[in-house]
């Protein structure tokens, strides 16, 4: 057989591209033999589960390379493995530069457009096939102008082979399709052309050398005004590829039957007569009889019997094959009626029953003037078909459609929220496939008219009506020290997150000699060595050779982590950490492991890879994502080889899948008496949570929002410094320990700039030390270029200390500066003072979803109208959920431990998490506590005094709550209405009537639910500096966090001591307003009859210390104290390096009076570019507009804690930042009330 001919493993599906190749599932094949060569055409019907399940698809476009999400004019796409690595890649046809997304071994789509010739075309269609027999797929690009054939250079890139392979042609080609037309074993090509008399061209492959135009020999005279798509497929089961032509402009689609020597037009006898305005077709066996059926995608309007256009929008048509290539139009019986403008579709099994569903790409484009011209007499009727009038604006975009197969080829529309965040895009193409080798297929939707392409991922889970429930189990009553809690997924007004837990029948254990168990949130096997193995881990490894996991090791013996009040708590905690680290290291030494940061660097930059590093995921046992320091756990990607080692390791306790979690005020503050609390003062200090910090684990926080600090990272000064060169060895060695000292006589402080800083995260460290070897900062991991923290004085020391295994780059220092540099991008932010982004692995927790910003605003907004519960509290933001509101437990674990590590630095008293996994659990001991992140929540509570509030979830469960809220150490929170909102409908239920303190129908509840708080409908901060309403247990949870901050501040002021988490929770429960869950007006009707406490902030504080005993103060009016004006010109306090001007305000006459509500103010600035900053980072930064404030009250800047001293005075230092170094002036002072 000559090279390149059909082989047994070379299968070409029906269609214009290879989209069927990437779809997961079983295959129905139609075989034929030609010249002794087996040729296989097949349709694909994915098999995901053994029983039908409700599925939901979320928009995960953020996982695409950022450049491919930009607004490009895309027309088509093809899914094809271009480098033969077993992972499906995506080629996108654009108007301009086409793009190639390569799917690496981590199943990440990376933009590798550099592998394509740098040619800008106007491309409309694609086809893939191995035209030269080298085993790699080549690409035909259909262009407006010259078509192109890109020859695959064995997966290393593409070469433009147009001139060598294709006959000259210049027209408007919209599609192409490969197939062995003449049966000689070589791939031939057909393509459509709307500009020539021969509207479809047939090119025959001359023995893998070039294509020869044989249209005249193969195709009878045929001229269509605008052919859209061509498909080669064996429709009549004679083992030869036939030709289907899809025509536009109201012309009949055509079917040409291949007799071995030519195509014969047998349209009249085989296709139903119908003149349409068709755009494309989808091919597949919809009724399960083994034959290829056809779905025709139409656009435009019907014609009447006289050929005149009517106002009736054309339906898509479903043509059923009788097995011999004769088709019957069964649209009315099998397909829901539609009025869409459809451009493309794909068949794929979406609900797990092995029958193909339909995904339709729609692209409605209604230009009012064009409709008026086309239908001058009845344009109003036409526009009404689209819900428009003559006064409506033009429309570009339409939601896509999904139709569910009943198993016999009859379709019904999918639920309205099947495609999450489905937008009114102008979609031209859709491809479906198992790009990430997960349990389900993904969709890639190609959008035009400057709209972003989008990727949708499979989120499994039963429907609301059929979600499986864990049978309710009795358990011991909770006490303050041993209680149960709830977890959350978030319901907003538009939608709720569906459950992600799937129950299966009790299977025989797959771990040889092991046993089966199902007592927790998932099924697991117990190996002979006693290791609990999550069955989903084993399934994923069997399917794709690796799985994302959390590994629990057995705890160290002879030592326990120290409790908060235990003597020598800090020393014992450090000993515990050392033991944990030793256990983790012992395990990693048995595995061939590499850290995620380094592996991504290696796979992403092949030209920079050291030759001794391995490059494939299969070369490693484990790719480390996190090494936790408080629990003997690790997270990362576990390969098949690593799994085989760990499942029999006696030191391993559990191998758990790293599962996903989802993000689950004007009226709410008065309901819980928060406004009464905020009117209280103790010793002249307002009760607003000042001094307390709330750690928000969510989608991040928009720290630039006016209600949350109005901070902008772009305004942070970056000193230029002076050049300085210092580097470690590259790479550094094992057991390396060296310290470098830099001294600059006369400098007041010194900082170094790392142009590159990369160490093995969690094992090798860079320390910043002062002259006395005091540690001021520690680095471990990979960082972007950054300044170190400033070290006071003229000397800084930098130490690198490494361990016994695995090395990395080290660091390069390129400059030093005499300046005050802070060690976080948020050093100058008044409200959101620090944070981490565990989604993007950096220290900028900016919100890209909006959920976390809404949560933070409820807890601590400073806005005067939509004020948070504790407006004086500060926020530390942990971004653990992505732009779609979803994340992984491994990132939640890391976030909790980061909150714990910053507890003393920022006085963190509460962690709040408005998220959950969608499951229903009611037995903490068996279903929640053994699994992450329950152990981290317990350590935060018992060992660090941090209470964790978690949303119970929004699934309308009555016998359980989500994880992690169900953990014994978590404080779970459900939702009540903040007032009478009338009837309110949600995704999972409806409240036909509402009132204050009515439990929101969506709230998950059970006996283990701890508290209720207002959660519907709550107005709080949203992205783009605005405010908006949301509803959900997500909104209730930060109310409890805010009240916690108020309680801690009050207890410290009144009693001189902080409260323990047990005291906080028990006080809220004891003083809360009892709410019984027996109200009606719920659809579906369901209540528990249980009573839960709804928090009452005022009552909680009164229980700590009677509010009536707060000493009364008699105060005068607010006055300006010691007003002074300072000019910049000639001052010695100007620092040209940092562009800052320093000044002081002194307050005198402090004897015999108490200053009450004392505020520092800036009430005039001459330059709008000048910012006010505080040298201690304690008070808000402020930028004013340069106007004179003579007609306004003094501009509030921040509260001062003043007290008498021997000199009867106090001095407040100021700094002003001016990026342009221009002269300016300001007026500063202090206002206060005299109180006796």
Automatic annotation (TrEMBL):
Tagged with keyword Phosphoprotein: no
Alphabetical keyword list: Disulfide bond, Hydrolase, Membrane, Protease, Serine protease, Signal, Transmembrane, Transmembrane helix
Ranges that cross the membrane: 35-55
SUPFAM superfamilies the UniProt entry points to: Integrin alpha N-terminal domain, Spermadhesin, CUB domain, Subtilisin-like
Keyword match Cytoplasm: no
Residue span, CUB domain: 711-818
Biased composition (Basic residues): 468-478
Region of interest (Disordered), ranges: 467-499
Segments of skewed composition (Polar residues): 488-499
Family annotation (Pfam families): FG-GAP_3, Peptidase_S8
Record GO biological process: proteolysis
Catalytic residues (UniProt): 698 (charge relay system), 851 (charge relay system), 1034 (charge relay system)
Similarity field: Belongs to the peptidase S8 family.
UniProt-listed PANTHER family: CELL WALL-ASSOCIATED PROTEASE (PTHR43399:SF4), SUBTILISIN-RELATED (PTHR43399)
Name the record gives this protein: CUB domain-containing protein
